[in-house]
Specification:
Layout lengths: L5 E4 L2 H11 L9 E9 L2 E9 L4 H8 L8 E9 L7 H16 L5 E7 L7 H5 L3 E12 L5 E2 L5 H10 L11 H7 L2 E13 L2 H9 L17 E6 L2 E4 L15 H7 L8
Parallel strand pairs: 4-5
Antiparallel strand pairs: 1-2, 2-3, 3-4, 5-8, 6-7, 6-8, 8-9, 9-10
């Protein structure tokens, strides 16, 4: 089904309320510049945010040494109502790219990650003809309740860990004995890297000046791998995806609540 989506900037509270009702993860990216609402016949049916991840300059420099954070945007959150047909997200991305060429014409690339650690190889980006640039291994923690906890959200837990092991030094990763005490698991998984060039100049840069060999040999579900920490510096490969419960918000509640409001117009 072909849609004529309209892309408009909306306020962050309406965008956040939509995301937290529809997206599998309620945690919102902090470095967001544009909260884009996707409308069909004046109804808000999707949201896509543009900005950067936690290390904007490091991310682009690692891929394109001559570029800076002003040269790209990263997709932070992207989701649509479940009632829309399967290819709707691809059409949403196409509409956003058209919006970017009018409103952010200096941007050379649209960049994103597919969260393989929660079972997503990035099929929507593949359908939108993004280029694939390999993967990185990433670490997350899982609480006893199934909450997915990013290491950057563990400040209070790390301080508790320091006291637990009676150390005077700062702790940067939870120790295995403390994790067992708290019934927390540490999981390694893959994040898949995708990029879309936004101009002919961008295509040349991607082909000639990137540290990554971009291609369209896309990962599939068979390429998903998970490893669990089973001792200090010891990991064991798992046979299936870990038991994330992405509806649980405890450690991440500060982030989730800081973006939400009771004044949303989204129903």
């Amino acid at each position: 089904m072909k849609f004529n989506f309209e892309v408009k900037e909306i306020n962050r509270y309406d965008a956040t309320d939509f995301v937290q009702k529809v997206h599998y993860s309620k945690v919102m990216p902090k470095l967001t510049k544009h909260f884009l609402g996707i409308f069909s016949e004046n109804k808000l049916v999707g949201v896509l945010t543009l900005g950067w991840g936690t290390q904007p300059l490091h991310t682009i420099k690692k891929l394109f040494p001559k570029l800076t954070s002003k040269d790209y945007y990263e997709i932070g959150k992207m989701c649509m109502l479940d009632e829309l047909p399967k290819n709707s997200e691809t059409q949403m991305i196409s509409a956003v790219v058209k919006w970017m060429k009018v409103h952010t014409p200096s941007k050379l690339f649209l960049f994103t990650w597919a969260d393989g650690i929660v079972g997503k190889p990035g099929y929507v980006y593949q359908a939108a003809n993004f280029n694939y640039g390999g993967f990185i291994w990433t670490d997350v923690y899982i609480s006893e309740e199934g909450e997915k906890i990013h290491p950057r959200s563990t400040k209070s837990l790390l301080e508790e860990n320091r006291l637990f092991i009676k150390s005077d030094k700062r702790v940067f990763w939870m120790t295995y004995d403390f994790m067992q005490h708290k019934k927390i698991r540490r999981i390694k998984g893959k994040q898949f890297r995708y990029i879309l060039p936004l101009s002919k100049e961008s295509v040349k840069l991607m082909n000639n000046e990137s540290t990554v060999k971009w291609n369209q040999k896309y990962p599939k579900h068979k390429d998903l791998v998970w490893k669990e920490m089973m001792g200090t510096s010891k990991y064991v490969e798992l046979t299936s995806i870990p038991n994330f419960d992405l509806s649980v918000v405890n450690v991440n509640s500060k982030n989730v609540n800081s973006h939400s409001t009771a004044n949303s117009v989204f129903d």
